[in-house]
Specification:
Low-confidence stretches: none
Radius of gyration: 21 Å
Strand order of the largest sheet: 5-8-9-4-10-11-12
Structural class: alpha/beta
CATH class of the largest domain: Alpha Beta
CATH architecture of the largest domain: 2-Layer Sandwich
Largest sheet: 7 strands, mixed
Number of helices: 9
Strand content: 15-25%
Distance between the termini: 34 Å
Shape: globular
Order of helices and strands: HEHEHEHEHHHEEEEEEEEHH
CATH topology of the largest domain: Dihydrodipicolinate Reductase, domain 2
Length: 334
């Protein structure tokens, strides 16, 4: 406000696009998941470069539409999974290509999310709409419902109409490294098991509007140019974690404690924290004498430079500078 006191404010992005599209070059989308695709596509159709928070979209169909649109409209795109710009993902890629853990066949990614309510019924009591909130505009393409307490600004993540649960919220941060290191594309098989909530003795609750309280999803990816065979990936949320590697000592942290990614190869293992941060070979003693040359250029300021990388690429113009998570990568990842 102090830097641009004459800037105009709009509640409705459509009105802003109609009136101001000649006055801006790029759009940053930080709305709830269910609004990402329609807002992003509208900006791209105006020829605007776009930065979109993760997950890229609310469903698979939307992800495919935006992936194709990026190529069609020739704009600079970036998803907000800042770990894609971290040094860690590039370092693990260098380690893997140097053969330090052999051929990866299994990957685990896990998170302590959700840290918001999930696996619950939609509240039966309507609440007063905050005076700052245009509820109808916020709903956008979602079904019309009464406003309920504490849905905004955070807990919408636990409802399928607006969010994508723990997998959508954290998957792009934790699964990005396996996609980058192993060049994964599309899963050929998916199997899921979710936690249950009991509302009475032997009476399991059924709340289809809400994302599950926990899940274990197994995805099988076909062989890539970086693997010798198929890759099995396990996603775990709600506090579920994979078996602790035997190589870790009792006082050594697995991932970052609540989240992490583990690669299992034919010759060893490596793990990382959220955002691909602090990668380590297992056992940790292997990290003392690593001599693998730096092969991939680092992004200035790593994860903190992710947004600036997109800004600089947008100023340079389409196809002039590389970004870490363009839609051709972010779409399949989402």
């Amino acid at each position: 406000v102090k830097a641009f006191p004459k800037a105009k404010y709009y509640r409705d992005y459509r009105e802003m696009f109609d009136k101001e599209h000649k006055n801006f070059d790029a759009v940053s989308v930080s709305t709830p998941d269910h609004s990402h695709a329609i807002q992003t596509l509208a900006a791209m159709q105006l020829g605007k470069h776009v930065y979109v928070q993760k997950p890229l979209t609310h469903d698979i169909h939307e992800a495919r539409i935006l992936t194709a649109a990026a190529k069609k409209y020739k704009v600079v795109t970036q998803m907000g999974n800042q770990g894609a710009s971290n040094d860690g993902a590039r370092q693990m890629k260098e380690w893997y290509e140097a053969g330090l853990i052999g051929d990866v066949h299994t990957v685990y990614a896990w998170t302590n999310r959700p840290v918001w309510p999930q696996g619950i019924p939609w509240p039966s009591t309507k609440a007063e709409i905050p005076k700052e909130l245009d509820w109808n505009l916020w709903l956008g393409t979602a079904p019309d419902k009464d406003y309920v307490d504490k849905l905004v600004p955070f807990n919408w993540r636990g409802w399928w109409d607006y969010g994508t649960g723990a997998l959508g919220d954290m998957g792009c941060h934790l699964i990005e490294a396996p996609f980058s290191v192993l060049n994964l594309k599309y899963a050929k098989e998916v199997e899921a098991s979710v936690g249950s909530v009991y509302v009475d003795e032997f009476k399991r609750g059924y709340f289809p509007e809400s994302c599950p309280p926990s899940s274990h999803v197994t995805l099988k990816f076909p062989k890539t140019n970086k693997t010798k065979g198929d890759v099995t990936m396990h996603w775990m949320d709600g506090g579920i974690q994979p078996e602790r590697p035997a190589e870790l000592e009792a006082n050594e942290t697995f991932g970052d404690g609540g989240n992490g990614t583990l690669f299992i190869g034919t010759k060893g293992k490596m793990m990382a924290e959220t955002y691909s941060a602090n990668p380590k070979l297992l056992p940790l003693s292997r990290n003392k004498d690593i001599k693998v040359p730096e092969k991939y250029a680092r992004v200035k300021d790593g994860a903190n430079g992710h947004y600036a990388q997109w800004v600089e690429a947008a100023i340079a113009g389409y196809g002039k500078q590389e970004v870490s998570s363009p839609f051709e990568i972010a779409g399949p990842l989402t």
